[in-house]
């Protein structure tokens, strides 16, 4: 299911429910580029230590935009003996939501854009109708601004309410006023003060002040004569509106927050960059230190599993020669593996693996989930008695938790999110 | 007329003819952003010297992509007593044309992208079907590579032809070979040499060698037994193909080269950034020094006219209060101005100024041309005898040549491309 800004608010409860009821989640991201400097070979040098790899990806890969996020939720149905899936394809764009919102910049790499264009990627959906987002710092800042504004405009003291402009919390845009403009500015400031004072004197019973912004960014002050009840009512309405604006601005980050707080197992394929981008874009600046990054990842995604790492580890390593997602998926349809039965939930379009829509993030997430189930079930066949369905709680899977595949590094088996790395 | 990569080769002669026959050209560019750091207010501070303004725009505005270029050609028809116009809307994208091509990065600014998205800008046309380009340095490099390659594969000496790989001119991709890979590489190099030597010995009458690349970047060597005539024929075919590949890669830069070599008057509105981006993207890195930039601009566009500067100068300044393109165009439809009669050339879609398609580059170029004609004709009304049509050779226009509008700077009237600036 494609989710853009147009249907985001309507579909968010559907997404949250899918996450809440799932046994596990599969994710995948599409980015506007991979490396802003070094070649891909240099970025993923086979002699890198985990620290070096992390530092290079942080330095050269984070200026790109994660602009499509795939989420596929998997819930096992005991009666049907199959997984019921819900697949979502989110289009993401840092749309400026008002004139105070951060005007984000991001880099595009021609080869990556060209690659996605050849896959039929819909850039118009991203740029015209992408879902906005804020990281935690930006969300906190916006929340603080709103609260401070409310305190000033809606405080107990009438004096405070009357004399302080609703926008006092915002720093002036132009702190240095050129000499020839000083008289003009002084006059405006004086007139504004005069309006507030006159209001106070003429309408001692109370007024309501609000600043509205027109679509072309012109701002007007609307002053309404109100009694105490009306004033309270207007304030409540305003608070609801502000809360809604805030939620809208937080946008896609709410999906990541829902995934995070669910503590569900999150499965990805070669997911180091997916995790780094997700944290960088929707949570906070990445830390310089790899160990701090590991702690942060444990907070955001308490349990992850990388199917590329799984497929590169015994007993799979011996029987799987190519671990690129599309080839892995093909290989896992052949013996000794048994591809799992899955079914799209009602109202969700179903993917046909025979046709394939590779590199659409929702489809890649779906395929990743399939690969995970197939490999997990294969491990179940060695149990006594053998199990045809292995749950995500099974001990056979836990050795693969919280270990990330490190591309091209042959002598270090993985990045260990739960402790120090192998040397 | 929309020009993308799909119809570029077919339409290029049409574009070149339109340029060649025109009295003047109007241009406009759309960019993926304006400032990668400072706010727009800081970037265009009213106290900037011309040097400071140029340095700031160069430092903070050139990482963005000029991804739509509008060109409108105006040719006066004496019989019809009106201008015949041809309008082109080019979509531009640095598509990597082969595996050796530069993998360009560019920055997008959310507010600019959002602004264009709201205007209905078609990002898919840019990224899926944009016209590639090379700057002069890249073109020269590619040409040199091709010539060197041809010299080696097609040289007089058979020995040279036989022993040197067709790709010897390209630097090896991985200069440092890890110790554990050295044996493998040595073996491959030996085998390759063996193939060339055996060929020479088995087929002394001659062979033709070529390396072909499959769509998924796999490379194969194709060796064909040929006699001398066939070999020459194949070489000619190859040369034609290479020339075509080179022309394709140069892509949109050929349009700018055609504009440049025509020496026609180029009209733009607030065109400093248009000129800077055009030179930066299709010619060369911008020089650090403003005077060098002026010389360079004189080479690329020997004669330019900025309608924003014209409208901000007497006698227009006194009667035109807003010089933003859309408002200027409206103002110039009212007395004392007479909007000119124009007609789209046969086969070219006509623009309707009543509906407007502002911020499509082709339309903005068209409107810019209209504004120029209206203002020029107004100046003609002061001549004795008064002229209703003023040609681009007229003395009444020449005072406006080669002066660029400097946004928000009030005490310096313009950037003078023909000499030192006012202090």
TrEMBL record, chains A, B:
GO terms for molecular function: 3'-5'-RNA exonuclease activity; RNA binding. One of its GO terms (biological process) is siRNA 3'-end processing. Gene3D superfamilies: R3H-like domain, Ribonuclease H-like superfamily/Ribonuclease H. InterPro entries: CAF1_poly(A)_ribonucleases (IPR051181), R3H_dom_sf (IPR036867), RNase_CAF1 (IPR006941), RNaseH-like_sf (IPR012337), RNaseH_sf (IPR036397). GO terms for cellular component: nucleus. Signal peptide: none annotated. Pfam families: CAF1 (PF04857). Belongs to the CAF1 family. This is Uncharacterized protein. It comes from Engystomops pustulosus (Tungara frog).
């Amino acid at each position: 299911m494609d989710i853009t800004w147009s249907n985001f608010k309507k579909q968010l409860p559907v997404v949250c429910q899918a996450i809440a009821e799932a046994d596990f989640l599969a994710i995948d991201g599409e980015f506007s580029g991979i490396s802003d400097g070094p070649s891909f070979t240099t970025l993923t040098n086979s002699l890198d230590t985990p620290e070096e790899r992390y530092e290079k990806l942080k330095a050269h890969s984070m200026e790109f935009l994660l602009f499509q996020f795939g989420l596929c939720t998997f819930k096992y149905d005991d009666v049907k003996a199959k997984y019921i899936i819900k697949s979502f394809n989110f289009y993401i764009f840092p749309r400026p939501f008002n004139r105070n919102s951060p005007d984000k910049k991001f880099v595009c790499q021609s080869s990556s854009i060209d690659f996605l264009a050849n896959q039929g990627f819909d850039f118009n959906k991203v740029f015209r109708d992408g879902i906005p987002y804020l990281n935690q710092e930006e969300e906190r800042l916006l929340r603080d601004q709103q609260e401070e504004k409310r305190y000033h405009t809606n405080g107990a003291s009438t004096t405070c309410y009357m004399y302080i402009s609703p926008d006092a919390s915002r720093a002036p845009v132009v702190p240095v006023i050129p000499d020839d403009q000083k008289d003009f500015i002084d006059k405006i400031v004086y007139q504004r003060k005069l309006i507030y004072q006159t209001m106070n004197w003429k309408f001692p019973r109370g007024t309501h002040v609000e600043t509205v912004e027109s679509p072309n960014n012109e701002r007007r002050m609307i002053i309404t004569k109100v009694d105490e009840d009306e004033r309270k009512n207007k304030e409540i309405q305003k608070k609801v509106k502000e809360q809604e604006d805030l939620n809208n601005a937080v946008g896609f980050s709410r999906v990541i927050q829902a995934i995070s707080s669910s503590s569900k197992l999150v499965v990805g394929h070669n997911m180091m960059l997916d995790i780094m981008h997700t944290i960088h874009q929707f949570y906070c600046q990445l830390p310089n230190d790899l160990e701090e990054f590991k702690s942060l990842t444990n907070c955001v995604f308490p349990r992850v599993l990388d199917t590329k790492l799984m497929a590169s580890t015994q007993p799979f390593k011996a029987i799987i020669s190519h671990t690129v997602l599309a080839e892995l998926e093909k290989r896992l349809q052949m013996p000794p593996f048994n591809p799992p039965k899955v079914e799209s939930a009602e109202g969700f379009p179903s993917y046909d693996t025979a046709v394939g829509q590779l590199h659409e993030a929702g489809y890649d997430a779906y395929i990743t989930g399939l690969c995970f189930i197939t490999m997990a079930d294969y491990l179940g066949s060695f149990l006594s008695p053998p199990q045809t369905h292995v749950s995500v709680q099974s001990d056979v899977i836990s050795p693969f938790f919280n270990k990330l595949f490190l591309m091209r590094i042959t002598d270090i088996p993985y990045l260990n999110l739960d402790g120090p790395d192998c040397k």
